[in-house]
Amino acid sequence: MNSTHREPPPGDALRLAVVGIGQRAQILHHATATGARVVAAVDPTEEGRAAALELFGPEVALFESHEQLATVEGLDAAFVLTPDWTHARITIDLLEAGIPVYLEKPLAISVTEADETLAAAKSSGTTLYVGHNFRLSPVVLLMRELIERGEIGEVKAVWCRHFVGNGGDYYFKDWHADRRKTNSLLLQKASHDIDVIHYLAGGYGRRVVGMGGLVLYGSIADRSDRTGQRMTDWFSMDNWPPLASTGLNPVVDVEDLSMLMVELDNGVQASYQQCHFTPDYWRNYTVIGTEGRLENYGDTSGGVVKVWNRRHEYAETGDAEYPIPGAHDGHVDADIATVQEFLEHLRTGAPTRISPVAARYAVAVGDLAAQSLRNGSIPLEVPELDAELVRYLERTTISSSSPNHHQGERHHP
């Protein structure tokens, strides 16, 4: 992200474009709620362009290709909400055209593409913001606050279990199931959690091992071409048990059960486990420090974060318990926060809590974990990002020093 910004005169609303009119296009309503205007929409399909008119009104200009946005006068930013394998190319083109970008996570589907995208942000001098919304979710902010207050001492380990109960409908009936378009769900789906692990632990992954396989959905022969459909067309809570799933994507070669272990650059050790055929759908984090541990039960409002910091046998009740705040279900609170943060940066140059450097390391760990699990679970080293590029990109991000304050200087998420 660069330090330039646009200061609109009083009454002048930011003019936005959206590229990709799918499920995530709804987040633009969080922008228009602040007075911004969606003036252009891009989608290669007639169905997508028709949906843009329904979402944003009849005055929105419609285009089939993101290259056509260069013809839109006074465009302040573009939201890139397209399928993962298109992220890097579209974003690089827009950055080089001088159009600031809010890019849906993940930054890219490989560490190489991620680094190319960050290099384009620097060479063009154009703002890049990656929508790692879960970093700003109430449960994550609460856990980070408890760590920073010293309630569990110095962080030494972070464990995350991700029960993806809707995995069959969400990831195995469309392009997500094709590794050419996602690389791996250890990158696509796990990029949220890898970023959160980095944020809670105060470091970036440096060595990673992956393990996993396609253990359930690969055995289902019923496949379907869902061109023109959206996830809402086939999703149902009645699609159970998982082996009774029908209409899977013609190509299914991503793993449905996977895990990684990662050592961070500050010595913290972390693990992540992901399963796409569980009956329940939520994330569970455990953070262990030198003076206690914390764990979330539920990951949205109504849940609780429990802290144990005295000696116990088994204790269902924590020594302290903190309700998870929030006004909405799912990611809505975090979506609102990221969209508003991006727009405020455009308007005033205010620093952001989201860093493209952190987004890159989430991709890097996921990419290397996928390579590891597909090659005998060999350990792989995460390549460091060029130090000059890091300094440039983090000029306008809020300093996020590690909860482990006494450890040496390094790049903090």
Automatic annotation (TrEMBL):
According to its UniProt entry, this protein's organism is: Leifsonella bigeumensis
Gfo/Idh/MocA-like oxidoreductase C-terminal domain segment(s): 144-381
State the source organism's domain of life: Bacteria
Family, similarity comment: Belongs to the Gfo/Idh/MocA family.
Identification of the protein by name: Gfo/Idh/MocA family oxidoreductase
Which Pfam families does the UniProt record give?
Answer: GFO_IDH_MocA (PF01408), GFO_IDH_MocA_C (PF02894)
Q: Which InterPro entries match?
A: Gfo/Idh/MocA-like_OxRdtase_C (IPR004104), Gfo/Idh/MocA-like_OxRdtase_N (IPR000683), Gfo/Idh/MocA_oxidoreduct (IPR051317), NAD(P)-bd_dom_sf (IPR036291)
According to the record, the segments passing through the membrane are none
**UniProt domain Gfo/Idh/MocA-like oxidoreductase N-terminal: residue ranges:** 15-132
Tell me the classification of the organism that encodes this protein.
Answer: Bacteria, Bacillati, Actinomycetota, Actinomycetes, Micrococcales
